[in-house]
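Please decode residue identities from the backbone states below.
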């Protein structure tokens, strides 16, 4: 029970920081906190309500994508801790990002 209370307190603090923060704060929370938090499926569940909040949904979705890149189709569904899932997931995500960047490049831009 004490751990749950602590997790909820941390969640409230992070939620307030995210909602009131600028782009740099949001980026830091996304990459240094949420993405890694979502690697732990039990902790990811504490943030499921972010998916329904218009101010938090994008961050929640990005963290879910991170979990997916680790070989999980949903952060609440564990597909195994096989290290090869991690590597394959990262390779797939890197390819997706590369393709996305290539399609966003302005016409006539250097390659």
């Amino acid at each position: 029970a004490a751990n749950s209370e602590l997790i909820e307190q941390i969640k409230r603090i992070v939620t307030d920081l995210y909602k009131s923060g600028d782009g740099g704060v949001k980026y830091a929370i996304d990459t240094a906190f949420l993405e890694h938090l979502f690697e732990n499926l039990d902790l990811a569940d504490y943030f499921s309500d972010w998916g329904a909040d218009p101010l938090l949904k994008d961050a929640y979705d990005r963290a879910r994508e991170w979990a997916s890149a680790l070989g999980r189709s949903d952060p609440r569904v564990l597909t195994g801790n096989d290290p090869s899932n991690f590597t394959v997931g990262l390779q797939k995500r890197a390819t997706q990002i590369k393709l996305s960047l290539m399609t966003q490049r302005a016409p006539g831009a250097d390659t």
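Observation: The two ends are 55 Å apart (CA to CA).
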